[in-house]
Fold this protein.
Amino acid sequence: MKILERRVIMAFTPLKEKYRNKVAQITLGATADQGGTRTSTVTIGGEEALPFLHFEGTIANKPVVALEVWDIAPTEWNSCFDQYYGDVYNDTAAWAKKCVEEYGAEVICLRFKGADPDLGDKSPEDCVATLKAVLGAVGVPLIVLGCGKYEKDNALFPAIAEAGEGENLLLGVGEQENYKTLTAAALGYKHAIIAQSPIDINIAKQLNILIGEMNFDTSRIVMDPTIASLGYGIEYGYSIMQRARFGALTGDKAMANPMIGNVGFEAWRAKEANASQEDFPGWGDQETRGIMWEATTATALISAGLGIAVLRHPKTVALVKKSIDALMVPSAY
Amino acid sequence: MGLTGLQIFKLLPKTNCKECGVATCMAFAMALANSKASLDQCPYVSDEAKEQLDAAAAPPIKKVTLGAGDFVRTMGDETELFRHDKKFFNETVIAIMVDDTEDVAAKAESFDKKVYERVGLTFYTDALAIINASGDAGKFKAAVEAAMGKTNRVLVLCSEDADAMAAAVEAAADRKPLICSATAANFDKMVELAVSKGCPLSVKGANLEEAVELATKAAAAGAKEVVIDSGSRQVSQTVADLTQLRRQALKRTKGFGFPAMAVVTAEDPMDQVVEAVSYMSNYAGLIALKADDDALLLPLMAWRQNLYTDPQKPIAVEPGLKEIGDVTPDSPVYTTTNFSLTYYIVEGEVEASKVPSYILSVDTDGISVLTGFAAGKFTGDTIAAAIKETGLEEKVNHKNIVIPGGVAVISGKLEDASGWKAMVGPREASGIPKFVRENFAK
């Protein structure tokens, strides 16, 4: 009689972490029956496991990509963008429309750069008019950012929040030194907000708590832990995101928020994205390199838990969306 | 890793002979547990105790060395799930795939020239993976020989046909190529080949479970260096498998203590790099991809560099006087710290300004401008000392130095200590081009 070969190897038991908490789920935008005028909304967050580890918990929503649109023509963007946006740089609404209809942006990130006192000092009324034009031109949800100068932003936020009432915007950014006006405006007109901290996990947590103390629903906060580009300190933001996400899942509710990153803004500041092939022959084609610098920055941070990647280049949008779709295919054991 | 001081103490002679240099065996045990001492320091430890201690001290993921001679790459030997907990050690090996039906000699020649320089560091594509796409043993061997003639970097030999592999390994054995790969179908022959030739071996399963089973069997059969390929060719399953391999290995689950590799399957070269970024972020010890364009590989290598930096240690550049462009005695002088991120951002902006300049990088132990200022390492005195030490005064015919706007308050001290005039520059390096236009325009 044949003796059965004894299996010496133990059966494989997958290691699955048990988490106690999940990331807050946030919907941006509102359709007509929800009181807004958007034709689509996006929902981010809600993860019950580390990024894309479907085998141990629900990854409720996929990360989304936004394209950045300015209210003035940018003078310092690389000239490789001219072929995509050159004809719409001076028409914010047309720019936004092109980003959605031709380039596949799921969200538009409208930055009121022109409100900067040094860059045109556009009035709140002008900004409101631009916001309304963009809302009329596209059906996707909007992220609306100020110019970054506190005094001006504080004049801007209430006007923007009011003009966007019902649209469920994502407004930003609130920082430790300047979050109250934004929070009050978002609270009054029911928008979500971005809380930005300077690559410091303790400040990130603290700011969420401070915003919560103003009776703002903290599950309506998107955290911006501040990122740097690939090659220029991306690993700091990457690790803070990993720590924040792991902290959130293991029970720290003050960090259990989706995260956003200004990927395009940072990546396209890097020398490697902009230097000509003429100056650096060993680095290959400039535009391809710039796109990959941006796509690599985005993909690396998405691996760490980034929920909204704000991008610039249309081709990066296509690359990153494709990558996210592949990562969202359920894995199992 | 593993044993506590008390557990180690029980295995020591307990004679308190002091010959190890420590007062008591207990103190020595504590030092061992904290990796502050080595067991070799104890002349009386028993072989049995040594074995137990060695086993406990063994890395949870075995170290695998690819290649021979001047160009060697290491996989495995990792201890962390998250880079912020300590650090990742052995950078992902990037292997560029070439089919044996292509002009392998030409491809290997261009591959061997792939050296990238950025931020003062040099990066290499590590390995050339030769695929037996022809299915022909002679062709495969010829391709491997052609590659050997053109590059001394690591070779990965990819064929599941044991006879084709035997012929190729015969030719390449002393280069210690990675044999890729043993499967359930060719297992005995491939393992025998790896064992007899002393080459590292990757095992590929139909799934993770089978791969782990094969790896365990290969190790039991004498294969000393084993790499696991879970066999998944779908992105999120590969990420899951790589994560399982790392987690289980760190928990010392039997069969999992091997480094892992991933194969990129996307068609489009740009998609390939994005896919590789996902694997690199999730513990892949080796990634094989076809893309080989410079503009695609540079970002991937930059991500590898960033991911594997020591999170506890700021990255510093060598302090001193740097020349940007063709400097003359009239060239402007900037100063900043030797924190690499700060330095290279400043360097990039100065370079972009197209005005040849000096940058005086002051030794702040690799910390940034404001931190360096707060810690007393970037002050009027330290900058003045650096001006003296670097012989700056003999190199330029002026005494103007641009300091970062964030530390404008040090101007007076600097001027007193050095006799130079401090020009307050922009707070952010991004303001340098404008500053140059306003101050140094020809």
